[in-house]
Amino acid sequence: MRTKPADSSSETIRDEVRQRYGATARGESSSCDEGCCTSTSADSLGYSAEESAIAPEAANLGLGCGNPLAIASLQSGQTVLDLGSGAGFDCFLAARAVTPSGKVIGVDMTHEMLAKARENARHNGFTNVEFRLGEIEALPVADESVDVIISNCVINLSPEKARVFKEAYRVLKPGGRLAVADIVATAALPAEIKGDWAAYTGCMAGASQISELEQMLREAGFAKINIAPKDTSRSFIREWLPGKRTEDYLISATIEAVKPEPAENF
């Protein structure tokens, strides 16, 4: 009998996620044909028509649960890091926002996604975007080198979320910001969903509750923590695993936090 996600090692979980999104990058069907975080339109996630037009069409794989750029407040010259950058959709939007004087780094652990993102960058002339192979629990990024971290529906996939937030804190400059869209749990998930690999790799079964995320962020050192659920997201979440009423337990939220300046007292 196959081991359930909750009883599996972190590496086993990462391997399952890697296989799932490698198949997505190759355009192949996966263990979750119903949708599962892959069929949501950009406008449903909060992207404008202008934003969708800016990014290369091949970069938009329908992956996500919100629009982190809407809360990132990016400025010219900033360095931005995207956790789980996929084919590069959010990276390319960020690259336009920070202008050529800024820089965007995308980190992804899936070789196929990296290849797709790098080709999108080359084909469309994005010279201030770099894609690196790595896991979000052990970022290939220097200490205090990033102004803003974005991510879209990826942290829920990590089996070691506390490590993700500690790594985010490490690479952010003092005063740097975390601006994330992710799936959070509003109630304990039924065993049927929590033990389903398709639900885990489909951005559902690994979701943490808001109070748990707040605690992990505080323990990592973050301040000014704000987690804001988006009620309208339930309309597309119910389509990710039809008939399972996932929208009763899960919701998309924006997650914001700040790495304090040394002299700040919160």
Description of the molecule:
With 266 residues, the protein is of the alpha/beta class. It is 32% helix and 20% strand. The chain has ten helices and seven strands. The chain has helices at residues 10-26, 49-54, 69-72, 89-98, 111-124, 161-171, 191-194, 197-201, 210-220, 234-237, and strands spanning 79-83, 103-108, 129-133, 146-152, 172-185, 223-230, 250-258. It has a seven-stranded mixed beta sheet, sandwiched between helices. Helix 6 (161-171) links the parallel strand 4 (146-152) and strand 5. It is globular. The relative contact order is 0.16.
Spatial order of the strands forming the largest sheet: 3-2-1-4-5-7-6
- Contiguous helical run count: 10
The total of beta strands comes to 7
- Kindly provide the radius of gyration, computed on alpha-carbon positions and rounded to a whole number of angstroms: 17 Å
Quaternary organisation of the protein chains = single chain
